[in-house]
TrEMBL record:
GO terms for molecular function: ATP binding. InterPro entries: AAA+_ATPase (IPR003593), ABC_transporter-like_ATP-bd (IPR003439), ABC_transporter-like_CS (IPR017871), ABC_transpr_MalK-like (IPR015855), ABC_transpr_MalK/UgpC-like (IPR047641), Mo/tungstate-bd_C_term_dom (IPR008995), NA-bd_OB-fold (IPR012340), OB_MalK-like (IPR040582). The keyword Transport applies. This is ABC transporter ATP-binding protein. CDD domains: ABC_MalK_N. Keywords: ATP-binding, Nucleotide-binding, Transport. Residues 4-236 form the ABC transporter domain.
Length: 356
């Protein structure tokens, strides 16, 4: 196992106008599960491919286990990889698929068998060792690809959207299995996904990327509850964080959203007379059928089974509210909205950055 240190990695593809990665620095601790999360095209795969040695950075440095590997060929980096297109060999039985890399490296047959059995046990593939991949489900085939990667005793495991070819149910069960497995073997892992739920569920830490840069890196709960900027707040969560624009009163005590007001934390008093953005998660807002206090007019009412989603309007601004499943409201109805101060995050409208 090993620590992975990325230092100011820059990559521009030939003919590309923008940098695919723009001075990305990241430290992944020994045994840590780091998720790279972000929208399509933000540079996640490029970053992973540079760590793997499949792309060379224009500048910057990659250090694995204290060794500078920036220009080292892939097979000398001691990494294992699982990619989206989990290519398993169709003409090889599961056991031969899992042991393939070991045999290529000249590991004695006895040891290969032991390791294959170990990985098959961990990934619940023991009953299928003698089958051909065509006789497996998508989830089982994916587990074969993961088993093949983990038997290699690599310092670092790299995974690029390994669950994306699975249907929603399989994805859910395999996600939990993967989490258990990686905890057990404790290998340093870099995992690319654009699925926020997967990222939050799997990562010891999550690095949210945007346009070639890391917008925020931290513990999943912290990234979700304290988004460092409006992009992160808007990217994470379904529905995403709400943002309301208002103007702070001249005495600095309240914010006015256009006729309705809320108190402003004392620390933001200096914004008197200026605009501020309030960020709040839909599930942090309480609703009751009353028309005093802060009011929202119901536009859309959507029962979602486990909760109810309300689209409300407050002074011409849209506010999504996730209410309990039993909550009932009619379009056109005015509701009292509760925005707990401890759940409110404040952003600078110019920089879109979180204000302390
Ligand atoms: P996705 O989730 O869609 O896979 P990503 O976040 O992994 O996206 P990358 O594949 O790293 O993003 O791409 C980053 C940027 O680099 C994009 O603008 C993309 O168009 C560009 N890019 C990626 N690969 C190449 C390539 N081989 N040649 C030219 N441009 C590329």
């Amino acid at each position: 196992m090993a620590e992975v240190v990325l230092h100011e990695l820059v990559k521009t593809y030939p003919g590309g106008t923008a940098r695919a990665t723009d001075e990305v620095s990241l430290e992944v601790a020994d045994g840590e599960f780091m998720v790279l999360l972000g929208p399509s095209g933000c540079g996640k795969t490029t970053l992973l491919r540079m760590v793997a040695g499949l792309e060379t950075p224009d500048s910057g440095q990659i250090v694995i286990g204290g060794r500078d590997v920036t220009y080292l060929e892939p097979r000398r980096r001691n990494l294992s990889m699982v990619f989206q297109s989990y290519a398993v060999f169709p003409n090889k039985k599961v056991a031969d698929n899992i042991g393939f890399g070991l045999r290529v490296h000249g590991v004695p047959a006895d040891e290969v068998r032991k390791k294959v059995e170990w990985a098959a046990e961990l990934l619940q593939l023991t009953p299928y060792l003698d089958r051909y991949p065509a006789k497996l489900s998508g989830g089982q085939r994916q587990r074969v690809a993961v088993a093949r990667a983990i038997v290699m005793d690599a310092d670092v495991l790299l995974m690029d959207e390994p669950l994306s070819n699975l249907d929603a149910l399989l994805r859910l069960s395999f996600r939990a299995e993967l989490k258990k497995l990686v905890n057990e073997i404790g290998v340093t892992t870099l995992y690319v996904t654009h699925d926020q739920v997967e990222a939050l569920s799997l990562g010891d830490r999550v690095a949210v990327m945007r346009e070639g840069r890391i917008a925020q890196c931290g513990d999943p709960v912290a990234v979700y509850t304290e988004p460092a900027d409006e992009f992160v707040g808007g990217f994470l969560g379904s529905p995403p964080m709400n943002f309301l624009t208002g103007t702070v009163s001249e005495d600095g005590t309240r914010i006015d959203f256009g006729g309705q007001t809320l108190p402003v934390p004392a620390a933001l008093k200096t914004f008197q007379g200026k605009r501020l953005r309030l960020g709040i998660r839909p599930e942090s807002i309480s609703v009751e059928p009353a028309s005093d206090g802060l009011r929202g007019d119901v536009q859309v009412f959507e029962p979602l089974g486990s909760s109810t989603l309300l689209t409300t309007e407050l002074c011409g601004q849209v506010l999504k509210v996730q209410a309990p499943a039993s909550f009932r409201a009619e379009p056109g109805q005015t509701l009292k909205l509760g925005l707990p101060p401890e759940q409110c995050r404040w952003y600078d409208p110019e920089t879109q950055l979180l204000l302390e």
